[in-house]
Amino acid sequence: MKILFWPLLLSLFSCSNDNFKKVETLDGFRVLAITSSNSEVAPGGSSVLQLFISDTKGGGRTIAGTFEACIDPGIAFGAEVRCDHDPNKALGAYVIDTVNDANLGAGNLYTGYATATYTATIPATILLGRSAREQYNGVSYIVIFSFTVDGVVVRSFKRIIATSRGTLNSAPAISNLFINGIVASGKPNKDDQLTLTTSIAEDYSYQNVDDVLETRSEVFEVAWYVSEGEISKPKALSLESVRYKTDPPATPMVLVVIMRDGRGGIAIHREVF
């Protein structure tokens, strides 16, 4: 049985060989993003998580999955993405219905927010025993979603940061999608330039290894996805334009833009043409 871990897998597709699956192409089931009402919280706080999925070739179906939530085992330092280490981990079911969900039905090409949500409650004790630097910069609480679709295990996880900082991260926003400088109102044509207007990146405080506070600025990274055609640069910065490389399809198509601020904040824009 194959296992796909989309957040990690995307970085593997850097080759330009056309025999490789293009990461921007939407076809089989994929978890494109997991949004949170709060990407940073105080200890004991909570965040509502929701999956943004695509299943354009699924034809409408129910996809049963599970979630587990726990304190981060140290993924950034090579630990496996799992919760076996945490005796207080949370477990449960998460079901996606692309037939009856108004956000995901045939008119949306089965691409959008799954109605089901999960509220992650971060332990009030998560910062106990941590260094002052860890408490300030934050400790991760993770929620892992797992689905088996067409014999393939698809796993994706979301981090929620618990921090002692008083100022918490706000999610970015995408206000408009432009095609050749005009607000999108129809399918892009071959060689059209696609751009975004977005919120302003935030500055935030970070405690470095010398225990000195420094000011850093967010850098928005954007991922472009289409159900038909190709994008010249599937991963770009927020102000970069990308080119639609092919003739528009005769059939309906969906275009999705996902912008991340590098701190857990996500903005999503979807167009169905």
Structure notes:
With 273 residues, the protein is mainly beta. It has one domain (2-272): Immunoglobulins (Immunoglobulin-like, Sandwich). It has helices at 6-9, 132-137, and strands spanning 2-5, 30-36, 40-41, 46-54, 62-71, 90-97, 111-121, 139-149, 152-162, 174-179, 182-183, 193-198, 203-207, 213-217, 221-226, 235-237, 242-243, 254-260, 266-272. Strands 1, 3, 5, 6, 8 and 9 form a six-stranded mixed beta sheet that branches. The protein has a four-stranded antiparallel beta sheet with strand order 11-10-12-17, with no helix packed on it. Strand 10 (174-179) and strand 11 (182-183) form a beta hairpin. The longest helix has 6 residues, at 132-137. The chain is globular, with a radius of gyration of 19 Å. The model is unreliable at 6-20 (pLDDT under 50).
Brief summary of the model shown:
The chain is mainly beta and 273 residues long.
Defining traits:
mainly beta, 4% helix, 4-stranded antiparallel beta sheet, 6-stranded mixed beta sheet, 2 helices, 273 residues, globular, Immunoglobulin-like
Indicate the percent of residues in helices: under 10%
Give the CATH level 1 class: Mainly Beta
- Please tell me what the overall shape is: globular
**In terms of per-residue confidence, which ranges show pLDDT below 50 for 5 or more consecutive residues?**
6-20
SS element count, helices = 2
Return the CATH architecture.
Sandwich
- The domain tally reads 1
Strand coverage percent: 35-45%
Largest sheet, in brief, is: 6 strands, mixed
Order of helices and strands: EHEEEEEEHEEEEEEEEEEEE
CATH topology heading: Immunoglobulin-like
Mean pLDDT across the residues is: 93
Give me the secondary-structure category.
mainly beta
Oligomer: single chain
- First-residue to last-residue Cα separation: 35 Å
- According to DSSP, the number of beta strands is 19
| Rg from alpha-carbon coordinates | 19 Å
